[in-house]
Design goal:
Radius of gyration of chain C: 18 Å
Mean pLDDT of chain C: 85
Largest sheet of chain A: 6 strands, antiparallel
Number of helices of chain A: 3
Number of domains of chain C: 1
Number of strands of chain A: 6
Oligomer: heterotrimer
Shape of chain A: globular
Chains: A alpha+beta (about 200), B mainly alpha (about 200), C mainly alpha (about 200)
Number of strands of chain C: 0
Largest sheet of chain C: none
Low-confidence stretches of chain C: none
Mean pLDDT of chain A: 80
Number of domains of chain A: 1
Largest interface: B-C, 42 and 42 residues
Strand content of chain A: 15-25%
Structural class of chain C: mainly alpha
Strand content of chain C: under 5%
Distance between the termini of chain A: 60 Å
Radius of gyration of chain A: 21 Å
Helix content of chain C: 55-70%
Shape of chain C: globular
Number of helices of chain C: 9
Chain lengths: ~200, ~200, ~200
Amino acid sequence: MVAVLSLTCLLCSAILGGAYALTKEPIEKAAADKTARSIALVVPEFDSVSEEKAAILDGKEYKYYEAVRDGAPVGYAIVSKAGGFGGDIVLMVGLDTAGVVCNTSVLSHSETPGLGAKCTSDEGFIAQWKGFDPSVKILSVKKDGGDVDAITASTITSRAYAKAVGTAVDVFKSINGVKVDASTGASVKPMEEPENEQ
Amino acid sequence: MSSKVRLILDGFVKNNPTFVLLLGMCPTLATTTSAVNGLSMGLATLFVLVLSNMAISAIAPVVPDKVHIPVYIVVIATFVTLLQLLMQAYTPAVYETLGLFIPLIVVNCIVLGRAEAFASRNGVIASAADGIGVGLGFTLALTVLGAVREILGSGSIFGWKFIPGDGMLAFVMAPGAFICLGYLMVLFNKYLKKE
Amino acid sequence: MEYFLIIISAIFVNNIVLAQFLGICPFLGVSNKLSTATGMSGAVCFVITLATLVTYLVNKFLLVPLHIEFLQTIAFILVIAALVQMVEIVLKKTSPSLYSALGIFLPLITTNCAVLGVALNVVTKQFTFGGEAHFLNLGESLVYALATSLGYGLAMVIFAGIREHLSLSDVPKAFKGVPIALVTVGILAMAFMGFSGMVK
Protein backbone atom coordinates (compact mmCIF):
# COMPACT_ATOMS: atom_id res chain seq x y z
CA MET A 1 0.00 0.00 0.00
CA VAL A 2 2.68 2.45 1.07
CA ALA A 3 4.92 0.98 -1.59
CA VAL A 4 2.42 1.79 -4.34
CA LEU A 5 2.04 5.35 -3.09
CA SER A 6 5.77 5.99 -2.81
CA LEU A 7 6.40 4.34 -6.16
CA THR A 8 3.80 6.61 -7.78
CA CYS A 9 5.34 9.70 -6.15
CA LEU A 10 8.81 8.66 -7.24
CA LEU A 11 7.74 7.94 -10.80
CA CYS A 12 5.80 11.20 -11.08
CA SER A 13 8.66 13.28 -9.69
CA ALA A 14 11.01 11.61 -12.16
CA ILE A 15 8.69 12.43 -15.07
CA LEU A 16 8.38 16.03 -13.91
CA GLY A 17 12.09 16.38 -13.33
CA GLY A 18 12.62 15.33 -16.94
CA ALA A 19 9.89 17.64 -18.19
CA TYR A 20 11.40 20.50 -16.20
CA ALA A 21 14.81 19.94 -17.72
CA LEU A 22 13.29 19.83 -21.22
CA THR A 23 11.14 22.95 -20.82
CA LYS A 24 13.69 25.03 -18.90
CA GLU A 25 15.27 26.44 -22.02
CA PRO A 26 12.00 27.28 -23.86
CA ILE A 27 10.66 28.95 -20.69
CA GLU A 28 13.74 31.14 -20.38
CA LYS A 29 13.61 31.86 -24.10
CA ALA A 30 9.94 32.87 -23.84
CA ALA A 31 10.79 35.29 -21.02
CA ALA A 32 13.75 36.74 -22.93
CA ASP A 33 11.61 37.10 -26.08
CA LYS A 34 9.01 38.98 -24.09
CA THR A 35 11.60 41.39 -22.72
CA ALA A 36 13.12 41.90 -26.16
CA ARG A 37 9.68 42.54 -27.67
CA SER A 38 8.75 45.11 -25.05
CA ILE A 39 12.11 46.86 -25.37
CA ALA A 40 11.65 47.10 -29.12
CA LEU A 41 8.19 48.55 -28.54
CA VAL A 42 9.21 51.36 -26.21
CA VAL A 43 12.50 52.81 -27.47
CA PRO A 44 13.33 54.68 -30.73
CA GLU A 45 14.69 52.72 -33.66
CA PHE A 46 17.94 50.99 -32.76
CA ASP A 47 20.58 48.56 -34.03
CA SER A 48 21.39 46.80 -30.81
CA VAL A 49 20.38 46.62 -27.20
CA SER A 50 22.81 46.45 -24.30
CA GLU A 51 22.89 43.65 -21.79
CA GLU A 52 20.71 44.11 -18.74
CA LYS A 53 22.12 46.88 -16.54
CA ALA A 54 21.18 47.98 -13.07
CA ALA A 55 20.77 51.45 -11.64
CA ILE A 56 20.46 52.19 -7.94
CA LEU A 57 17.97 54.81 -6.86
CA ASP A 58 17.02 55.43 -3.24
CA GLY A 59 18.64 52.15 -2.27
CA LYS A 60 16.58 50.14 -4.75
CA GLU A 61 17.84 48.44 -7.85
CA TYR A 62 16.20 49.02 -11.22
CA LYS A 63 16.90 47.05 -14.35
CA TYR A 64 17.38 48.93 -17.59
CA TYR A 65 18.54 48.39 -21.14
CA GLU A 66 20.34 50.84 -23.38
CA ALA A 67 19.33 51.02 -27.04
CA VAL A 68 22.19 51.90 -29.36
CA ARG A 69 22.16 53.11 -32.97
CA ASP A 70 25.26 53.83 -35.01
CA GLY A 71 27.33 53.51 -31.87
CA ALA A 72 25.45 56.17 -29.90
CA PRO A 73 22.72 55.57 -27.34
CA VAL A 74 19.27 56.55 -28.62
CA GLY A 75 17.14 55.60 -25.65
CA TYR A 76 16.66 53.63 -22.50
CA ALA A 77 14.14 50.96 -21.62
CA ILE A 78 13.66 50.98 -17.86
CA VAL A 79 11.76 48.38 -15.84
CA SER A 80 9.83 50.02 -13.03
CA LYS A 81 6.86 49.14 -10.92
CA ALA A 82 4.24 50.53 -8.58
CA GLY A 83 1.54 48.98 -6.45
CA GLY A 84 -1.82 49.10 -8.22
CA PHE A 85 -5.21 47.83 -7.13
CA GLY A 86 -4.53 44.09 -7.23
CA GLY A 87 -0.75 44.03 -6.88
CA ASP A 88 2.28 45.38 -8.65
CA ILE A 89 2.02 46.89 -12.11
CA VAL A 90 5.37 46.27 -13.78
CA LEU A 91 6.17 48.49 -16.74
CA MET A 92 8.83 48.75 -19.38
CA VAL A 93 9.19 52.49 -19.88
CA GLY A 94 11.13 53.77 -22.89
CA LEU A 95 12.76 57.19 -22.85
CA ASP A 96 14.81 58.91 -25.50
CA THR A 97 18.09 60.57 -24.64
CA ALA A 98 16.31 63.89 -23.95
CA GLY A 99 14.23 62.27 -21.23
CA VAL A 100 10.95 62.26 -23.16
CA VAL A 101 8.84 59.12 -22.78
CA CYS A 102 8.69 57.27 -26.13
CA ASN A 103 6.27 54.54 -25.15
CA THR A 104 5.35 52.23 -22.32
CA SER A 105 4.49 48.57 -22.14
CA VAL A 106 2.99 46.52 -19.32
CA LEU A 107 5.18 43.56 -18.36
CA SER A 108 2.83 42.19 -15.73
CA HIS A 109 -0.13 43.28 -13.66
CA SER A 110 -2.94 41.81 -11.61
CA GLU A 111 -5.58 44.48 -12.02
CA THR A 112 -9.31 43.81 -12.22
CA PRO A 113 -10.43 42.57 -15.66
CA GLY A 114 -12.61 45.17 -17.36
CA LEU A 115 -11.37 47.96 -15.09
CA GLY A 116 -7.70 48.39 -14.23
CA ALA A 117 -6.69 45.66 -16.67
CA LYS A 118 -7.58 48.13 -19.43
CA CYS A 119 -4.16 49.69 -18.88
CA THR A 120 -3.05 47.14 -21.48
CA SER A 121 -5.85 47.81 -23.97
CA ASP A 122 -7.37 51.30 -23.50
CA GLU A 123 -6.17 53.07 -26.65
CA GLY A 124 -6.48 56.61 -25.31
CA PHE A 125 -4.64 55.75 -22.13
CA ILE A 126 -1.81 53.97 -23.93
CA ALA A 127 -1.45 56.59 -26.66
CA GLN A 128 -0.94 59.47 -24.24
CA TRP A 129 2.46 58.11 -23.19
CA LYS A 130 3.94 58.45 -26.66
CA GLY A 131 5.96 61.63 -26.48
CA PHE A 132 4.97 62.44 -22.91
CA ASP A 133 7.53 65.03 -21.79
CA PRO A 134 7.88 64.94 -18.00
CA SER A 135 9.66 68.29 -17.98
CA VAL A 136 6.57 69.97 -19.43
CA LYS A 137 3.67 67.83 -18.22
CA ILE A 138 2.93 66.76 -14.68
CA LEU A 139 3.06 63.02 -14.09
CA SER A 140 -0.09 62.49 -12.09
CA VAL A 141 -3.73 61.92 -13.00
CA LYS A 142 -5.96 64.90 -13.81
CA LYS A 143 -7.98 64.27 -10.64
CA ASP A 144 -4.82 65.00 -8.63
CA GLY A 145 -3.99 68.07 -10.69
CA GLY A 146 -1.67 66.37 -13.19
CA ASP A 147 -1.76 65.82 -16.95
CA VAL A 148 -2.42 62.08 -17.15
CA ASP A 149 -5.81 60.96 -18.46
CA ALA A 150 -6.99 58.22 -16.11
CA ILE A 151 -8.74 55.05 -17.28
CA THR A 152 -12.48 55.33 -16.64
CA ALA A 153 -13.32 54.12 -13.12
CA SER A 154 -9.74 52.98 -12.48
CA THR A 155 -8.03 55.89 -10.79
CA ILE A 156 -5.90 53.67 -8.54
CA THR A 157 -4.49 51.77 -11.53
CA SER A 158 -3.88 55.00 -13.45
CA ARG A 159 -2.14 56.57 -10.44
CA ALA A 160 0.09 53.53 -10.05
CA TYR A 161 0.88 53.60 -13.79
CA ALA A 162 1.82 57.27 -13.60
CA LYS A 163 3.89 56.61 -10.50
CA ALA A 164 5.79 53.79 -12.22
CA VAL A 165 6.49 56.04 -15.22
CA GLY A 166 7.65 58.71 -12.76
CA THR A 167 10.03 56.25 -11.13
CA ALA A 168 11.41 55.36 -14.55
CA VAL A 169 11.96 59.06 -15.30
CA ASP A 170 13.85 59.37 -12.00
CA VAL A 171 15.92 56.31 -12.82
CA PHE A 172 16.69 57.84 -16.22
CA LYS A 173 17.84 61.03 -14.52
CA SER A 174 20.05 59.08 -12.17
CA ILE A 175 21.54 57.07 -15.07
CA ASN A 176 22.37 60.24 -16.94
CA GLY A 177 23.28 62.04 -13.73
CA VAL A 178 25.91 59.42 -13.07
CA LYS A 179 27.28 59.81 -16.58
CA VAL A 180 27.19 63.58 -16.81
CA ASP A 181 28.27 64.37 -13.30
CA ALA A 182 30.75 61.56 -12.84
CA SER A 183 33.67 64.01 -13.07
CA THR A 184 32.20 66.43 -10.55
CA GLY A 185 31.60 63.65 -8.07
CA ALA A 186 27.83 64.11 -7.79
CA SER A 187 26.35 60.69 -8.33
CA VAL A 188 22.61 61.28 -8.26
CA LYS A 189 20.83 64.48 -9.18
CA PRO A 190 18.20 65.68 -6.72
CA MET A 191 14.82 65.18 -8.27
CA GLU A 192 11.30 66.30 -7.63
CA GLU A 193 8.49 63.76 -7.46
CA PRO A 194 5.22 65.56 -8.00
CA GLU A 195 3.19 62.35 -8.12
CA ASN A 196 4.30 60.99 -4.79
CA GLU A 197 1.51 62.22 -2.54
CA GLN A 198 -1.27 59.65 -2.56
CA MET B 1 -16.94 2.48 -32.05
CA SER B 2 -20.37 4.11 -31.81
CA SER B 3 -20.34 3.61 -28.05
CA LYS B 4 -17.22 5.77 -27.83
CA VAL B 5 -18.89 8.49 -29.89
CA ARG B 6 -21.88 8.19 -27.60
CA LEU B 7 -19.55 8.73 -24.59
CA ILE B 8 -18.16 11.90 -26.15
CA LEU B 9 -21.61 13.24 -26.98
CA ASP B 10 -22.88 12.53 -23.45
CA GLY B 11 -20.34 14.99 -22.10
CA PHE B 12 -22.01 17.84 -23.97
CA VAL B 13 -25.58 17.70 -22.71
CA LYS B 14 -26.51 14.73 -20.56
CA ASN B 15 -23.38 14.83 -18.39
CA ASN B 16 -22.43 18.45 -18.98
CA PRO B 17 -20.02 19.12 -16.12
CA THR B 18 -21.04 22.74 -15.64
CA PHE B 19 -24.77 22.84 -16.21
CA VAL B 20 -25.80 19.38 -15.04
CA LEU B 21 -23.17 18.02 -12.69
CA LEU B 22 -22.34 21.48 -11.25
CA LEU B 23 -18.66 20.65 -11.00
CA GLY B 24 -15.64 22.88 -11.42
CA MET B 25 -17.47 26.06 -10.52
CA CYS B 26 -14.38 28.01 -9.45
CA PRO B 27 -12.55 28.17 -12.80
CA THR B 28 -15.91 28.47 -14.56
CA LEU B 29 -16.67 31.70 -12.74
CA ALA B 30 -13.17 33.10 -12.39
CA THR B 31 -11.66 32.71 -15.85
CA THR B 32 -14.60 33.52 -18.10
CA THR B 33 -14.01 37.28 -18.33
CA SER B 34 -13.83 36.85 -22.10
CA ALA B 35 -14.61 34.12 -24.62
CA VAL B 36 -10.93 33.48 -25.35
CA ASN B 37 -10.07 33.12 -21.65
CA GLY B 38 -12.94 30.69 -21.16
CA LEU B 39 -11.85 28.68 -24.19
CA SER B 40 -8.22 28.49 -23.02
CA MET B 41 -9.22 27.40 -19.54
CA GLY B 42 -11.51 24.74 -21.03
CA LEU B 43 -8.76 23.39 -23.26
CA ALA B 44 -6.26 23.36 -20.38
CA THR B 45 -8.69 21.30 -18.32
CA LEU B 46 -9.38 19.04 -21.32
CA PHE B 47 -5.65 18.31 -21.61
CA VAL B 48 -5.36 17.25 -17.98
CA LEU B 49 -8.66 15.39 -18.01
CA VAL B 50 -7.87 13.19 -21.02
CA LEU B 51 -4.34 12.32 -19.91
CA SER B 52 -5.20 11.67 -16.27
CA ASN B 53 -8.24 9.62 -17.27
CA MET B 54 -6.05 7.43 -19.50
CA ALA B 55 -3.26 7.05 -16.94
CA ILE B 56 -5.65 6.27 -14.11
CA SER B 57 -7.61 3.69 -16.07
CA ALA B 58 -4.29 2.01 -16.87
CA ILE B 59 -3.03 1.88 -13.28
CA ALA B 60 -6.36 1.42 -11.48
CA PRO B 61 -6.22 -2.42 -11.33
CA VAL B 62 -2.93 -2.43 -9.38
CA VAL B 63 -3.70 0.42 -6.96
CA PRO B 64 -4.89 -0.80 -3.54
CA ASP B 65 -8.28 0.56 -2.60
CA LYS B 66 -7.10 2.32 0.54
CA VAL B 67 -4.65 4.65 -1.15
CA HIS B 68 -6.46 5.12 -4.46
CA ILE B 69 -7.42 8.77 -3.80
CA PRO B 70 -3.88 9.96 -2.93
CA VAL B 71 -2.47 8.06 -5.91
CA TYR B 72 -5.03 9.61 -8.27
CA ILE B 73 -4.30 13.06 -6.88
CA VAL B 74 -0.57 12.60 -7.44
CA VAL B 75 -1.19 11.45 -11.02
CA ILE B 76 -3.47 14.44 -11.69
CA ALA B 77 -1.01 16.84 -10.06
CA THR B 78 1.74 15.47 -12.30
CA PHE B 79 -0.20 16.24 -15.45
CA VAL B 80 -1.14 19.67 -14.12
CA THR B 81 2.51 20.49 -13.42
CA LEU B 82 3.39 19.21 -16.88
CA LEU B 83 0.75 21.55 -18.31
CA GLN B 84 2.13 24.44 -16.24
CA LEU B 85 5.63 23.88 -17.60
CA LEU B 86 4.42 23.55 -21.20
CA MET B 87 2.26 26.65 -20.96
CA GLN B 88 5.06 28.71 -19.43
CA ALA B 89 7.29 27.66 -22.29
CA TYR B 90 4.96 27.96 -25.28
CA THR B 91 1.97 30.13 -24.29
CA PRO B 92 3.30 32.42 -21.53
CA ALA B 93 0.68 35.11 -22.12
CA VAL B 94 -2.22 32.68 -21.64
CA TYR B 95 -0.50 31.22 -18.60
CA GLU B 96 -0.29 34.65 -17.02
CA THR B 97 -3.92 35.46 -17.73
CA LEU B 98 -5.26 32.26 -16.21
CA GLY B 99 -2.77 32.47 -13.33
CA LEU B 100 -3.69 30.61 -10.18
CA PHE B 101 -6.43 28.62 -11.87
CA ILE B 102 -4.00 26.45 -13.82
CA PRO B 103 -2.46 24.82 -10.72
CA LEU B 104 -5.95 24.69 -9.24
CA ILE B 105 -7.01 22.20 -11.95
CA VAL B 106 -5.60 19.66 -9.46
CA VAL B 107 -8.55 20.22 -7.16
CA ASN B 108 -11.09 20.65 -9.94
CA CYS B 109 -13.79 18.20 -8.91
CA ILE B 110 -14.39 17.30 -12.57
CA VAL B 111 -11.00 15.67 -12.98
CA LEU B 112 -11.01 13.67 -9.75
CA GLY B 113 -14.71 12.99 -10.22
CA ARG B 114 -14.22 11.41 -13.66
CA ALA B 115 -11.23 9.44 -12.36
CA GLU B 116 -13.33 7.98 -9.58
CA ALA B 117 -16.61 7.52 -11.41
CA PHE B 118 -15.38 6.45 -14.83
CA ALA B 119 -11.68 5.95 -15.46
CA SER B 120 -11.08 3.60 -12.54
CA ARG B 121 -13.71 1.18 -13.91
CA ASN B 122 -13.21 1.39 -17.68
CA GLY B 123 -10.58 0.76 -20.31
CA VAL B 124 -8.00 3.24 -21.52
CA ILE B 125 -9.74 4.04 -24.82
CA ALA B 126 -13.18 4.45 -23.24
CA SER B 127 -11.66 6.65 -20.53
CA ALA B 128 -9.98 8.83 -23.13
CA ALA B 129 -13.31 9.20 -24.95
CA ASP B 130 -15.01 10.10 -21.69
CA GLY B 131 -12.29 12.65 -20.94
CA ILE B 132 -12.66 14.22 -24.40
CA GLY B 133 -16.44 14.38 -24.07
CA VAL B 134 -16.54 15.87 -20.59
CA GLY B 135 -13.60 18.16 -21.37
CA LEU B 136 -15.29 19.47 -24.53
CA GLY B 137 -18.55 19.92 -22.62
CA PHE B 138 -16.67 21.96 -20.03
CA THR B 139 -14.85 23.95 -22.72
CA LEU B 140 -18.14 24.68 -24.49
CA ALA B 141 -19.79 25.86 -21.27
CA LEU B 142 -16.84 28.10 -20.41
CA THR B 143 -16.65 29.56 -23.90
CA VAL B 144 -20.38 30.31 -23.96
CA LEU B 145 -20.25 31.91 -20.51
CA GLY B 146 -17.13 33.86 -21.49
CA ALA B 147 -18.77 35.01 -24.73
CA VAL B 148 -21.93 36.19 -22.95
CA ARG B 149 -19.90 38.08 -20.35
CA GLU B 150 -17.66 39.60 -23.00
CA ILE B 151 -20.62 40.74 -25.13
CA LEU B 152 -22.44 42.29 -22.18
CA GLY B 153 -19.41 43.57 -20.31
CA SER B 154 -17.07 44.77 -23.04
CA GLY B 155 -19.24 44.93 -26.16
CA SER B 156 -16.96 42.56 -28.04
CA ILE B 157 -16.72 38.88 -28.93
CA PHE B 158 -13.44 36.94 -29.21
CA GLY B 159 -11.72 40.31 -28.99
CA TRP B 160 -13.65 41.75 -31.94
CA LYS B 161 -15.33 44.94 -30.73
CA PHE B 162 -18.73 45.66 -32.22
CA ILE B 163 -20.14 48.11 -29.70
CA PRO B 164 -18.01 51.20 -29.15
CA GLY B 165 -17.31 52.40 -25.62
CA ASP B 166 -17.58 50.55 -22.36
CA GLY B 167 -20.04 47.73 -21.83
CA MET B 168 -21.80 46.94 -18.59
CA LEU B 169 -18.71 46.55 -16.46
CA ALA B 170 -20.49 44.55 -13.75
CA PHE B 171 -20.61 41.57 -16.12
CA VAL B 172 -16.85 41.37 -16.40
CA MET B 173 -16.51 41.52 -12.64
CA ALA B 174 -17.44 39.03 -9.95
CA PRO B 175 -21.20 39.67 -9.61
CA GLY B 176 -21.73 39.32 -13.36
CA ALA B 177 -20.06 35.92 -13.33
CA PHE B 178 -22.52 34.51 -10.81
CA ILE B 179 -25.56 36.13 -12.39
CA CYS B 180 -24.66 35.11 -15.97
CA LEU B 181 -24.03 31.52 -14.96
CA GLY B 182 -27.32 31.47 -13.03
CA TYR B 183 -29.31 32.65 -16.05
CA LEU B 184 -27.47 30.35 -18.48
CA MET B 185 -28.34 27.46 -16.20
CA VAL B 186 -31.99 28.51 -16.27
CA LEU B 187 -31.95 28.49 -20.09
CA PHE B 188 -30.20 25.11 -20.09
CA ASN B 189 -32.76 23.65 -17.66
CA LYS B 190 -35.65 25.00 -19.69
CA TYR B 191 -34.63 24.04 -23.20
CA LEU B 192 -31.99 21.30 -23.16
CA LYS B 193 -32.25 19.16 -20.08
CA LYS B 194 -34.52 16.16 -20.49
CA GLU B 195 -36.00 14.66 -17.39
CA MET C 1 -1.55 48.69 11.01
CA GLU C 2 -0.48 46.39 8.23
CA TYR C 3 -2.05 43.40 9.94
CA PHE C 4 -5.28 45.37 10.22
CA LEU C 5 -5.19 46.12 6.49
CA ILE C 6 -4.52 42.47 5.70
CA ILE C 7 -7.52 41.41 7.77
CA ILE C 8 -9.95 43.94 6.30
CA SER C 9 -8.73 43.28 2.78
CA ALA C 10 -8.92 39.49 3.09
CA ILE C 11 -12.34 39.39 4.72
CA PHE C 12 -14.24 42.10 2.87
CA VAL C 13 -12.45 43.59 -0.12
CA ASN C 14 -10.97 40.45 -1.65
CA ASN C 15 -13.45 38.02 -0.18
CA ILE C 16 -12.29 34.57 -1.17
CA VAL C 17 -15.67 33.39 -2.48
CA LEU C 18 -17.27 36.58 -3.73
CA ALA C 19 -14.24 38.23 -5.32
CA GLN C 20 -11.65 35.49 -5.85
CA PHE C 21 -13.99 32.62 -6.79
CA LEU C 22 -12.31 30.02 -4.63
CA GLY C 23 -14.12 27.26 -2.80
CA ILE C 24 -17.37 27.69 -4.71
CA CYS C 25 -18.33 24.00 -4.84
CA PRO C 26 -18.67 23.51 -1.07
CA PHE C 27 -20.02 27.04 -0.84
CA LEU C 28 -22.97 26.04 -3.01
CA GLY C 29 -23.08 22.49 -1.73
CA VAL C 30 -23.40 22.85 2.02
CA SER C 31 -24.98 26.28 2.37
CA ASN C 32 -28.52 24.90 2.52
CA LYS C 33 -28.66 25.04 6.29
CA LEU C 34 -27.11 27.52 8.67
CA SER C 35 -25.83 24.78 11.01
CA THR C 36 -23.92 22.83 8.34
CA ALA C 37 -22.58 26.08 6.91
CA THR C 38 -21.10 27.03 10.28
CA GLY C 39 -19.59 23.56 10.68
CA MET C 40 -18.00 23.65 7.25
CA SER C 41 -16.66 27.18 7.81
CA GLY C 42 -15.06 26.07 11.06
CA ALA C 43 -13.37 23.10 9.43
CA VAL C 44 -12.17 25.18 6.46
CA CYS C 45 -10.85 27.87 8.78
CA PHE C 46 -8.85 25.32 10.73
CA VAL C 47 -7.43 23.54 7.68
CA ILE C 48 -6.59 26.68 5.66
CA THR C 49 -4.59 28.19 8.52
CA LEU C 50 -2.78 24.94 9.31
CA ALA C 51 -2.15 24.14 5.63
CA THR C 52 -0.77 27.61 4.95
CA LEU C 53 1.63 27.25 7.89
CA VAL C 54 2.91 23.87 6.73
CA THR C 55 3.11 24.67 3.01
CA TYR C 56 4.88 27.95 3.77
CA LEU C 57 7.54 26.07 5.71
CA VAL C 58 7.78 23.28 3.13
CA ASN C 59 8.26 25.85 0.39
CA LYS C 60 10.82 27.91 2.28
CA PHE C 61 12.95 25.14 3.73
CA LEU C 62 12.51 22.35 1.18
CA LEU C 63 11.45 23.46 -2.28
CA VAL C 64 13.32 26.76 -2.55
CA PRO C 65 16.71 25.51 -1.24
CA LEU C 66 16.50 22.52 -3.60
CA HIS C 67 15.38 24.70 -6.54
CA ILE C 68 12.37 22.54 -7.22
CA GLU C 69 9.70 25.23 -6.97
CA PHE C 70 8.08 23.72 -10.06
CA LEU C 71 6.91 20.88 -7.80
CA GLN C 72 4.88 23.34 -5.67
CA THR C 73 1.49 22.19 -6.91
CA ILE C 74 2.15 18.51 -6.37
CA ALA C 75 3.92 19.00 -3.01
CA PHE C 76 1.24 21.28 -1.65
CA ILE C 77 -1.66 19.04 -2.59
CA LEU C 78 0.07 16.09 -0.95
CA VAL C 79 0.72 18.13 2.20
CA ILE C 80 -2.91 19.21 2.29
CA ALA C 81 -4.23 15.69 1.74
CA ALA C 82 -1.97 14.29 4.46
CA LEU C 83 -2.83 17.13 6.80
CA VAL C 84 -6.55 16.61 6.41
CA GLN C 85 -6.13 12.91 7.16
CA MET C 86 -4.06 13.69 10.24
CA VAL C 87 -6.47 16.31 11.53
CA GLU C 88 -9.24 13.76 11.14
CA ILE C 89 -7.36 11.11 13.12
CA VAL C 90 -6.23 13.52 15.85
CA LEU C 91 -9.67 15.05 16.26
CA LYS C 92 -11.28 11.61 16.46
CA LYS C 93 -8.95 10.61 19.30
CA THR C 94 -8.75 13.84 21.28
CA SER C 95 -11.97 15.71 20.81
CA PRO C 96 -14.91 13.54 19.77
CA SER C 97 -17.35 16.43 20.14
CA LEU C 98 -15.41 18.64 17.73
CA TYR C 99 -14.95 15.63 15.45
CA SER C 100 -18.66 14.97 15.29
CA ALA C 101 -19.22 18.64 14.44
CA LEU C 102 -16.51 18.94 11.75
CA GLY C 103 -15.84 15.30 10.88
CA ILE C 104 -18.10 14.85 7.90
CA PHE C 105 -16.71 17.99 6.24
CA LEU C 106 -13.06 17.11 6.58
CA PRO C 107 -12.72 14.66 3.65
CA LEU C 108 -14.37 17.24 1.37
CA ILE C 109 -11.76 19.84 2.24
CA THR C 110 -8.87 18.19 0.39
CA THR C 111 -10.52 19.09 -2.90
CA ASN C 112 -11.66 22.51 -1.72
CA CYS C 113 -9.69 24.78 -3.99
CA ALA C 114 -9.73 27.51 -1.36
CA VAL C 115 -7.13 25.61 0.66
CA LEU C 116 -4.70 25.02 -2.20
CA GLY C 117 -5.51 28.46 -3.60
CA VAL C 118 -4.56 30.31 -0.42
CA ALA C 119 -1.44 28.18 0.05
CA LEU C 120 -0.27 28.90 -3.51
CA ASN C 121 -1.22 32.57 -3.33
CA VAL C 122 0.85 33.11 -0.22
CA VAL C 123 4.06 31.77 -1.74
CA THR C 124 3.71 32.97 -5.33
CA LYS C 125 1.98 36.32 -5.18
CA GLN C 126 3.26 39.67 -4.00
CA PHE C 127 0.81 41.64 -1.93
CA THR C 128 0.42 45.38 -1.51
CA PHE C 129 -1.12 46.48 1.73
CA GLY C 130 -0.71 50.22 1.71
CA GLY C 131 3.03 50.02 1.16
CA GLU C 132 5.49 48.31 -1.15
CA ALA C 133 4.56 45.07 -2.86
CA HIS C 134 6.26 42.17 -1.15
CA PHE C 135 5.99 38.47 -0.41
CA LEU C 136 4.32 37.81 2.91
CA ASN C 137 6.44 36.66 5.83
CA LEU C 138 5.30 33.82 8.06
CA GLY C 139 3.34 35.99 10.50
CA GLU C 140 1.59 37.88 7.71
CA SER C 141 0.85 34.65 5.87
CA LEU C 142 -0.86 33.20 8.90
CA VAL C 143 -2.89 36.34 9.51
CA TYR C 144 -3.80 36.39 5.81
CA ALA C 145 -4.84 32.72 5.87
CA LEU C 146 -6.90 33.13 9.01
CA ALA C 147 -8.58 36.32 7.79
CA THR C 148 -9.28 34.77 4.38
CA SER C 149 -10.94 31.77 5.97
CA LEU C 150 -12.95 34.05 8.25
CA GLY C 151 -14.11 35.79 5.08
CA TYR C 152 -15.08 32.38 3.74
CA GLY C 153 -17.08 31.73 6.90
CA LEU C 154 -18.73 35.13 6.72
CA ALA C 155 -19.84 34.67 3.10
CA MET C 156 -21.01 31.14 3.86
CA VAL C 157 -23.06 32.09 6.92
CA ILE C 158 -24.66 35.12 5.25
CA PHE C 159 -25.51 33.03 2.22
CA ALA C 160 -26.89 30.13 4.26
CA GLY C 161 -29.12 32.58 6.11
CA ILE C 162 -30.44 33.96 2.83
CA ARG C 163 -30.89 30.48 1.40
CA GLU C 164 -33.00 29.34 4.33
CA HIS C 165 -35.41 32.16 3.50
CA LEU C 166 -35.14 31.47 -0.21
CA SER C 167 -36.32 27.90 0.23
CA LEU C 168 -39.63 29.20 1.56
CA SER C 169 -40.29 31.56 -1.33
CA ASP C 170 -42.04 30.79 -4.59
CA VAL C 171 -39.38 30.52 -7.30
CA PRO C 172 -40.07 29.78 -11.03
CA LYS C 173 -39.41 26.11 -11.80
CA ALA C 174 -36.37 26.60 -14.05
CA PHE C 175 -34.74 28.79 -11.39
CA LYS C 176 -35.15 26.28 -8.57
CA GLY C 177 -32.04 25.17 -6.74
CA VAL C 178 -28.65 26.27 -7.99
CA PRO C 179 -29.63 28.93 -10.60
CA ILE C 180 -31.46 31.14 -8.11
CA ALA C 181 -28.66 30.54 -5.60
CA LEU C 182 -26.11 31.78 -8.15
CA VAL C 183 -28.13 34.90 -8.94
CA THR C 184 -28.37 35.55 -5.19
CA VAL C 185 -24.60 35.15 -4.76
CA GLY C 186 -24.18 37.60 -7.63
CA ILE C 187 -26.19 40.21 -5.76
CA LEU C 188 -24.24 39.44 -2.58
CA ALA C 189 -20.97 39.87 -4.51
CA MET C 190 -22.24 43.24 -5.73
CA ALA C 191 -22.87 44.25 -2.12
CA PHE C 192 -19.33 43.21 -1.19
CA MET C 193 -17.95 45.30 -4.05
CA GLY C 194 -18.98 48.28 -1.98
CA PHE C 195 -16.09 47.47 0.33
CA SER C 196 -13.53 47.85 -2.45
CA GLY C 197 -12.71 51.44 -1.55
CA MET C 198 -11.91 50.55 2.04
CA VAL C 199 -8.31 49.52 1.59
CA LYS C 200 -6.19 51.95 -0.45
